[in-house]
Structure formats: C-alpha cells, structure tokens
Specification:
Elements (H helix, E strand, L loop, with lengths): L3 E6 L7 H14 L3 E5 L13 E3 L2 H7 L16 H6 L3 H6 L2 E8 L1 H16 L5 E6 L17 H22 L2 E6 L6 H9 L4 E3 L11 H17 L5 E6 L2 H4 L2 H6 L19 H16 L5 E6 L10 H19 L5 E5 L5 E5 L21 H9 L9 H4 L11 H5 L2
Parallel strand pairs: 1-2, 1-4, 4-5, 5-10, 6-8, 6-9, 7-8
Antiparallel strand pairs: 2-3, 10-11
Helix pairs in contact: 1-2, 1-12, 6-7, 8-11
Length: about 400
C-alpha cells in the first residue's frame, strides 16, 4: 500500500491556511505519497467514520492562494476519556499513515504531541510535525519571526483602519476601533502604527499599573483633548481586545459585559462587540466632562481571519509547507516547522517553548520598552503631558488625570 500522510487544521482560521495545506500536499504528492485531508480538526480522529478526502495535485493547486481553510476547522480538544474510548487507530493503520501534519496554534500543537505519544504506546509510532499559525502573532518564534497569517491580517486591518481614519477627518468625528488579540497587542499595535492613529491601547502598555476601564477611557480622552489643542477635532483610537483578559472580574462586571467562555476557558470575545462597549464608555465620559465629541465604534475581527493571504504569507506559508517534508525526510518529529529570515528550515521543539510547570507556551508580548513601540509612543501618538496642563484647562478642570504617563505610571 502507498505510504500516506494526514493533514488537519485546528483552532481558528488565519490567512495562509490553504497555502500551507496546498504546499504540503504538492510536495508530498511529487514524492509519491498519498495525502489525506481531515475535516473538523481533531474530532475526525475520534470518530468511527471521519470526514476525509484525498487531496490531489489539482485540488492543492486550486486552493493554495485562497483565504479561509478548505479543510473545515474545529476547536475540539480530546479528553483522556476520548483517547481511551474513541480514538480511531484504524484510520492510521488502514491508510498506512506515516506522518500527521497539524496546522494551528499552541493548543493544536499540544494535542498533536499527545496523539503521537498515544500511537507510540500502541506500537504504531508516526511522525508528527506542526505548522504554527495565529493572526495574534503571539507564539514565541525565534528572532521575532512572525506567525503566518499575521502580516495578511494586519494588512487587511490597516485597509479598514485607514478608511476609518479618512472618515474621521472628513466628518469631524472620532472612531473607536477594536482589534483582535487574545493576550497580546501585536495586531492592534501594527494596525494603529501603520495608520498613524493618535491613540493605541494594548495590554502591554500597563506594565506598571493595573488595567482598569477608567484608565483605558482616560487614555482616549487624553488624545481627544490633545488633538483639540492641536486644532484637530477628529481622530481615532485602536484598542486591543486583549485588555479584557487583564481586567479583574469586578472591572468586567462594572463595565456591564457578560462573557461566555469556550472549552479552553477563554472568554468568547467574538460574541461581544468590544468597539461598541469601549465607545459607550467613552461617550459617557466625554458627556460627563462636557466635551463636544461624536464617536463611532468599528470592530476589526473576523473580517481579517479569512482574507486572501498577501504576497508575504503566500511565500512564507509555501516555505513552511515545503519545510514539513524537509524535516520529515530528516527523521524529525514532535516539532514545529520554523523558517528563519534567511529562509532556512529548522525544527522547533515544543518542549523548548513550554513552561516547565504548566506545560503551556507563554505568549510573545509586544515589548513596551523596545524602540519599535516607544518610537510610536513618542513620535506618533497624541496625548496630554505636563506642558499641556494650562491649555487643557479650557476643556477639563483636572488635566493631570489625563496625563498619558501618569495614567500608565511610566
């Protein structure tokens, strides 16, 4: 029987999913392997009759530059009971599968390792190689290498944010833009920096103080007042949804937000319009201060996950897909494929990234003290400083409460 590989996609989509799948398929097909695509993520491995289909070269060529994921994704994460009672070992043995390729985030990678160990214990060891993705850019890849999908999501987000900023200038309004980002502010920062937004709010900024709703709102008000002093009665602020993850339960309750939680314990932020919540809080504050400001909410979320990959990710994801074969041919397993800035393919082992106690991969955060971030803070953002206090009294009685550096305790 012809040797085969299986490939699945887990978690949420990111631009370049199909590029990885198509590139893996093309590479292995030309080497004589059968390529089996599994739908519905890991759930397919815990069913008697998984949704599967052979990926031939024509299909791979048809999907490689499309957005979304041809292989339907799932956030299913198997329990120990699933492994004991439901695991479909027959799928691997009857199809002569030698490699499981998984495309997803850290949860997907961890499950791939569990499956490889389970199969080894059943005396059917297979190789497993993971391709890391997330538009959040928060997996700690070496040398600051981006996770695939981030550049495309940032590009699409910047297109939206640029149009929003043009609307602000045209209409004399303010816009509150919320951007995806579970625990890190890379996407919000990248979009805001690309569009020269006068205020960017990400969780990493609060490295010397607790995040509160008041501080988030006051940062935006600081920018509004500063722009008034500059003769610019319009603007936009981009806020990372990740600030919600750092708010205390009491703060979330006071903000009037009721979250549901997914099976991994993450707040289901996609079910709540963060931009709407932020904008409502801002409207209340400016009204109480007597400021004449019109603001509108804009959410940048699911629109950027399934867009067509830009040239950067088309090349990068193709390299990752071809890199899977290179590592497999070298006998590597239990690793992620990594392509450095020079185009070299290297294995990246999960054990080198995981916390030794929790076993989780700590997120890569924006370096709030680094030149990249501080350059934007010092040169592009607009906010109140002590030099503005006297002039700002024309708008607020206590301008020091809206001092950017005092709010953040910098």
């Amino acid at each position: 029987m012809k040797q085969a590989i299986a490939i699945l996609t887990g978690g949420g989509p990111a631009p370049g999913m199909n590029t990885v799948v198509g590139s893996v398929a093309k590479t292995f097909l030309t080497k004589g392997y059968r390529v089996i695509g599994l739908h519905e993520g890991y759930s397919g491995l815990f069913k008697e009759n998984p949704r599967q289909e052979d990926i031939d070269y024509k299909l791979a060529d048809d999907i490689f530059n499309r957005g979304g994921s041809y292989l339907q994704m799932s956030r299913f994460k198997p329990t120990d009971k699933n492994f004991e009672e439901d695991f479909n070992l027959k799928f691997f043995t009857e199809n002569n599968i030698k490699l499981l390729v998984t495309v997803g985030g850290d949860d997907t990678a961890s499950t791939a390792n569990r499956i490889a160990k389970f199969l080894e214990a059943k005396q059917y060891p297979i190789s497993n190689i993971h391709v890391p993705k997330t538009i959040d850019n928060d997996l700690p890849l070496p040398d600051g290498a981006p996770t695939f999908g981030y550049q495309s999501a940032k590009d699409k987000g910047a297109v939206i944010a640029r149009a929003v900023y043009c609307d602000a200038r045209t209409s004399g309004n303010w816009f509150v833009v919320a951007a995806m980002g579970r625990s890190a502010g890379h996407l919000a920062f990248g979009i805001g920096a690309a569009c020269h937004y006068p205020m960017i709010v990400i969780p990493e900024m609060f490295n010397k103080t607790e995040i509160t709703v008041d501080k988030i709102v006051n940062l935006v008000v600081s920018s509004i007042i500063k722009r008034k002093l500059m003769g610019m009665d319009y603007g936009a602020a981009v806020i990372s949804e990740g600030v919600f993850h750092e708010l205390s339960d009491e703060e979330i309750k006071n903000a009037g937000i009721n979250f549901t939680y997914d099976e991994h314990g993450h707040p289901e932020l996609g079910k709540v319009s963060k931009a709407h919540v932020f904008n409502e809080m801002l409207e209340k504050r400016v009204k109480a201060l007597g400021l004449k400001v019109k603001s509108r909410p804009v959410e940048i979320g699911y629109e950027v996950r399934c867009q067509d990959p830009i040239g950067y990710d088309l090349v990068y994801c193709s390299q990752l897909g071809m890199g899977v074969y290179k590592l497999f041919s070298e006998g590597k397993t239990g690793c992620m494929v990594f392509v450095n800035q020079s185009g070299e393919v290297k294995p990246l082992y999960l054990k080198d990234l995981q916390d030794p106690v929790s076993g989780k991969i700590p997120p890569r955060l924006v370096d709030a003290n680094g030149d990249k971030f501080q350059g934007v803070v010092r040169n592009l953002l607009n906010y109140i400083t002590p030099e503005d206090y006297e002039a700002a009294k024309a708008y607020v009685a206590n301008p020091e409460d809206f001092d950017f550096y005092k709010i953040l305790n910098w």
